[in-house]
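Re: weekly structure request thread

Next one in the queue (220 aa):
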Amino acid sequence: MIGKLAGRLDYRAGDHVLIDVGGVGYMVYCSERTMATLPGPGEAVSLFTELLVREDLLQLFGFTTLVEKEWHRLLMSVQGVGAKASMAILNTLGPDGVSRAITLGDWNAIKAAKGIGPKTAQKVVIELKDKAPSVMAMGGTAALAQGSPAARADADDVIEPIETPSVTSASAQAEALSALVNLGYGQGDAAGAVATAAGEGASETPDLIRAALKLLAPKG
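Done, posted below.
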């Protein structure tokens, strides 16, 4: 399985790039969002990848973050969602947008992607909603592919962890807080919900996210 490529970008096309890795060229298909972040020909590039294997086809798809790669894998696990549909959803919403839509049950946001009908959008939300917290938790620890412009741009964008005696707990709370902020919740509200969830016994990042989301949900 090819999980990541780092090399020199040889050329760019409309929906794919060719990456030279030690003299071997890999053709990698990317969404328009990802293509927009990549450098020009001759420059260093690094992408997380997912290999699609069929009887008559081997196709690599590239992503700038592990969260985006994981959503691609999960989206393709939904019956009726192939690689093209998954890339369309990620291109329309981005990985954070997919996390937000699925967590909040907003299938209309999924339906906004090209080629995605209402039934498929609803199926995506229903089948993946329980998996969203775990994917969101990856955002706190999963680095961007080294050398990508996005990695350099976000290097200073750090959310301070909530004060706590436990280093492990502090890390989990920081990851949960980051995921909630990416969903659009205010820093103060998110931090309060995470702290309350931790006080009620949640310690792992996915558990903190689930508990905090329940606390942040509109009452009544």
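Residues 4-63 form a domain with the OB fold (Dihydrolipoamide Acetyltransferase, E2P) fold (CATH 2.40.50.140). The radius of gyration is 18 Å.
Next request, please.
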